[in-house]
Amino acid sequence: MVVGIALSEKLGHVGVRAYFLTLQAQLRYKAGEIPEAKRLTLEALPVLLDLAARDSAYIERATIIGQNAVSFASLDGDFESARKIKALLAQRGFV
User: Fold this and answer.
1) Are 24 and 40 in contact (CB under 8 A)?
2) What pTM does this model have?
3) Is 13 strand, coil or helix?
4) What does the domain layout of the chain look like in residue ranges?
5) How many whole angstroms separate alpha carbon 75 and alpha carbon 1?
6) Which of 15, 16, 31, 83 is the least buried, fewest Cβ under 10 Å from its Cβ?
């Protein structure tokens, strides 16, 4: 996965980088590393929301990752962040 992130950075494609960040987040979640899954998801989410605002191809992915961000924040006990993410998603029409 780290190779994918490095390659996406070399290519300069933020959408691909966000995709690999979210794949890494899923692996961290499955390994029980909730704080790291949350961190990676929160790094990718703003990029995906920005891309979705400009290209409808990203809407589904941004919605899913937004829901994951809320879940990971809640699982990490970070309810304030979970509420803020939920509000942001609603404000942008993703919920």
Assistant:
1) yes
2) 0.86
3) coil
4) 2-91
5) 23
6) 31
